TrEMBL record:
Signal peptide positions on this chain: none
Name of the protein described by the UniProt record: DNA-binding transcriptional ArsR family regulator
HTH arsR-type domain span: 1-94
GO molecular function, one term: DNA binding
Keyword Secreted: no
CDD domains: HTH_ARSR
Pfam families from the UniProt entry: HTH_20
Family annotation (PANTHER family): TRANSCRIPTIONAL REGULATORY PROTEIN
Keyword vocabulary terms for this entry: DNA-binding
Organism, scientific name: Sulfitobacter noctilucicola
Keyword Ribosomal protein on entry: no
Length: 116
């Protein structure tokens, strides 16, 4: 169960381009070291660390310490919970609307066909 406060943290974390790019990197290469990840960005390592802290607080990344290296992993569970809560519900709404539009278009086409 994800609370509204949890969702606020996830949406806030996702609002920044660099943080979304960090998640993309971790999705493509799980277990990246912090230093390796920082080299992918044109910002200071401190800035990357600050972004990582925001993502960690939102539950979007996890890390493990391996020797002197910190390995980073994407945790997609908060995104899945938001998807389940928001995307599924709204896509159902639009599927209903699309079905209505399709039925209306088919009825109009049938009426035109019968008039000819």
């Amino acid at each position: 169960m994800i609370t509204n406060d949890d969702m606020d943290q996830v949406f806030s974390a996702l609002a920044h381009t660099t943080r979304r790019e960090i998640l993309d990197h971790l999705r493509q290469k799980p277990g990246m070291a912090v230093g390796e990840l920082a080299q992918s960005f044109d910002v200071t390592r401190i800035a990357v660390m600050n972004h990582l802290q925001v993502l960690t607080n939102a539950g979007l990344i996890t890390s493990e310490k391996v020797g002197r290296t910190r390995r980073l992993y994407l945790n997609a569970m908060p995104l899945q919970l938001i998807h389940d809560r928001w995307i599924d519900a709204y896509s159902g709404h639009w599927l209903d609307r699309m079905s209505l539009i399709k039925q209306t278009a088919e009825a109009v086409a049938q009426q035109i066909y019968e008039e000819d």
